[in-house]
Give the backbone structure.
Amino acid sequence: YYMVLGARTENNLGSILVYQSKDLEQWTYHGTLYDGNEEQGYMWECPDFFEIDGQSVLIFSPQGILPEEYKYNNPHVAGYILGETDWSLVKFKPTTEFREFDRGFDFYAPHTFEDDQGRRIMWSWMGIGDTMPEYTNPTIARGWQHALTLPRELVLENGQLYQRPLEEYKKLRKNEQTKSFREAGALSGEVYELLLEFETSAPFELKLRQDTELIYADGILTLKHGKSGYGRRKRMTPIKEIRQLQLFVDTSSLEIFVNDGEYVLTTRVYPDAGEDAIDLETKADGTITYWALD
């Protein structure tokens, strides 16, 4: 048996350690599965290592990656590298760069398992450490904060991992409403799923949850909060085209799946009671489907 552990080296580099055991009780240090460099942060947490469609996948949560214009905007991020494994040495050899899982505000420490159908299911913490003073959660005064994301199925397509809500969530749907974009007024809700399907990619503005906006223009998708974000302001992601959006909205959370899971944005949000109108502005043609979630 092998066990992977996240680590920080004495010279402040991330590393994935490997221990081995014959019985899952007595463990000995074997070496490092994969070592980081100065561009990959000072510590790696929460590693997860598995194969999907014959491809090795290393998931970890590096702390201390310096932010770039559109990437690594949270103080700590989470993502994955695809590669190959030399099992004679127990060494991981990457074939891709590190890729973030989520472009929102609240996503960290994901872990996966394989279910009885052979699906690779990922759970994640819908929170993040060291966000203050940039943003916070008003529930702290009531003695709690944070949540878990929806469990997501990981699927390897086009050389990357797509994240998709489990099919089982469809059992929660009720009160379906489908309208064209032109007729998309008068929708509102607090706990719901929203599916937007565009006939052609085009700019749009989607307003929801008091003062949250999802804006797509000039090839950039922007998630923007007002005061209900409690310090969360905006995250921007370049996306060549958007043909589909799937949103899961709960009382204090928002999970946005773009292009059937090609990109995902997760955030906490704390709107005032009753501030639940949905407004779509676009010149594109398409349909919007709304389900209340039970």
